[in-house]
């Protein structure tokens, strides 16, 4: 986690962003970070992206309660607390805003060995819809971005392996996604006025994984037309 976090901080600093890390499962740390972020920008914050998450993947029969709770606390509870606190400040300041929860295509599917992860993302999707109904009249949009298999530093070894090649062959678009090429457009849509009439939406960017009804076993298998 730390190498990935430090890499993100190095990318943000040259762009003028005042990066600050905090424990999203500790309320005191979260509240302090939200207040710092709000005050760092003249006029406050109007775009919030909740992108903290872990998996703790493994067979459900071997999954400990502690491991389950850790995923739910980081993936769901942390996103809720951050959203709530920024929304409070937006409302008090009379600001319109956009909250984007980074969910996963696994929120609508069943990922092997992913009980807590899938549960947390499914809950995040419904939290997104419910908060959208409450905050819409106050001028705050709440949406979720649900990526599928996107190549990152964490999963690059697996996705570039022979197993990864087979996994890619079962995706309707026959490839894994790229963060900058495939996610930035959807994220900017939700953050900007281009998506001004969107709220309560879960935007899936997964190459067709969730919408597919047939999974390829043979890499040479072709979809019927």
UniProtKB/TrEMBL annotation:
Protein name per UniProt: Uncharacterized protein
Source organism of this protein record: Klebsormidium nitens
BP GO terms, sorted: fatty acid biosynthetic process
Keyword list, A-Z: Oxidoreductase
GO MF term list: oxidoreductase activity, acting on the CH-OH group of donors, NAD or NADP as acceptor; quinone binding
Family: Belongs to the short-chain dehydrogenases/reductases (SDR) family.
SUPFAM superfamilies membership: NAD(P)-binding Rossmann-fold domains
Record InterPro entries: NAD(P)-bd_dom_sf, Sc_DH/Rdtase_CS, SDR_fam
The keyword Hydrolase appears for this protein: no
């Amino acid at each position: 986690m730390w190498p990935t976090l430090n890499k993100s901080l190095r990318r943000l600093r040259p762009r003028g962003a005042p990066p600050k890390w905090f424990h999203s499962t500790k309320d005191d740390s979260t509240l302090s970070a939200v207040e710092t972020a709000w005050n760092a920008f003249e006029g406050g914050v109007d775009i919030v992206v909740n992108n903290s998450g872990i998996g703790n993947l493994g067979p459900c029969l071997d999954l400990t309660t502690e491991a389950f709770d850790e995923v739910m606390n980081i993936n769901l509870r942390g996103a809720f607390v951050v959203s709530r606190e920024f929304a409070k400040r937006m409302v008090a300041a009379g600001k319109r805003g956009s909250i984007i929860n980074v969910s996963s295509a696994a929120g609508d599917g069943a990922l092997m060995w992913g009980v807590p992860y899938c549960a947390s993302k499914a809950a995040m999707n419904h939290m997104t819809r419910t908060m959208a109904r409450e905050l819409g009249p106050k001028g705050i949009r709440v949406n979720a971005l649900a990526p599928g298999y996107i190549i990152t530093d964490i999963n690059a070894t697996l996705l570039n392996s022979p197993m990864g090649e087979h996994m890619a062959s079962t995706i309707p678009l026959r490839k894994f996604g790229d963060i900058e090429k495939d996610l930035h457009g959807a994220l900017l849509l939700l953050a900007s006025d281009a998506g001004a009439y969107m709220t309560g939406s879960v935007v899936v960017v997964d190459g067709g994984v969730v919408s597919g009804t047939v999974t390829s076993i043979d890499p040479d298998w072709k979809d019927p037309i």
